[in-house]
Predict the structure of Phosphopantetheine-binding protein.
Amino acid sequence: MAPAEGVDVLERALSAADRVGHLVISTGSLDGRIAQWVTGDIHEAGEDVDDQERHPRPELNNPYVEPREGTEAVLAGIWSRVLAIEPIGALDNFFELGGHSLLAIELTTRIRKTLNASVPVTGLLECPTVRQLAELLDARDDEE
């Protein structure tokens, strides 16, 4: 929001204060924000469209290792989308790539929807790489 727009919004909000009980100001799609922050379906608004710009993989302590086909490749794709980084290697650490608790929530939600697999956010602490997480999920599938 540009400074002039901010002043305009503030003036409108102050002038409406005596007429409304609640006021919502959103710089983006209000429906999308409600889906993300209120109803909990962060994918409702535009999940099928993946036109987000991706940044190159940062310098890490480990070399890039291509994810194996199957669960690893699917997880690497999900991580790439959530972290906006491409490519994601099988041995890349979620937290070293800039992951944090809010992104972990989004990541686990996308994993649940895509792979029909439940992963607690704390699972990323125990399995912070694509390969480790894939092994955990594949082991659970084998148990079932």
User: Anything to note?
Assistant: Residues 44-49 have pLDDT under 50 and may be disordered. DSSP finds six helices and two strands in the chain.
